[in-house]
Amino acid sequence: MEVIAIQKSTFDGLENELKELLEMTESATQKYSTIFKQEKWLDNQEVCLIMNITKRTLQTYKDKGLLSFSSLNRKNYYKLSDVQALLKVGQPYKANENGLTDE
Questions:
Q1: What whole-number distance in Å separates Cα of residue 16 and Cα of residue 49?
Q2: pLDDT tens digit sequence for 62-79
Q3: What is the pLDDT of residue 94?
Q4: Rounded-to-integer distance, Cα 57 and Cα 102, Å
Q5: Strand stretches in 30-74, DSSP E
Q6: What keywords does the record list, in alphabetical order (predicted)?
Q7: Rounded-to-integer distance, Cα 94 and Cα 4, Å
Q8: Is the pLDDT at 90 greater than 70, yes or no?
Q9: DSSP secondary structure letter of residue 101
Q10: What is the residue range of 29's domain?
Q11: Which helix (H) or strand (E) holds 19?
């Protein structure tokens, strides 16, 4: 284990910067909290599990505009209602046993 010694003033400055970063993060996420409370949002894995599709098939749905999504911090989220609507009309591109999509 490596031990690094720093001056107390440097440590206090670092601690203050981390507190400011935490406050900025909390204020940024507050903007989106109402959006996430209005409707259930799903990530890639949850959508794949619900629809029983591969990640590649999900990407095809996004590319073709069949399933809308929102990105937050480089992560995609999908409205549960949009996923349910796509399931209701049927899945136009279903992965086969090789993980490839049939078009």
A1: 42
A2: 999 999 999 988 899 999
A3: 57
A4: 9
A5: 41-42, 70-72
A6: Coiled coil
A7: 55
A8: yes
A9: B
A10: 8-37
A11: helix 8-38
- For residue 76, list its beta bridge partners: 71
Instruction: Note the pTM of the prediction, 2 decimals.
Output: 0.56
Q: What angle do CA 62, 63, 66 make, to 5 degrees?
A: 50
Mean pLDDT of all residues in 40-53: 94
Structure tokens that stand for 6 in this block: 């720093």
Alpha-carbon distance of 77 to 38, in angstroms, equals 14
Distance CA 45, CA 2 (A): 38
Number of domains in the chain: 2
17, 53 in Cβ contact below 8 A? Answer: no
Q: Is 71 exposed, middle or buried (0-12, 13-18, 19+ CB in 10 A)?
A: exposed
CATH code for the domain in which residue 66 is found: 1.10.1660
pLDDT band of 39, cuts 50, 70, 90: confident
Average pLDDT of span 25-35:
78
86 token code pair: 């796509």
- Structure token pair of residue 42: 């799903």
Q: Which residue, 14, 97, 101, 26, is CA-closest to 64?
A: 101
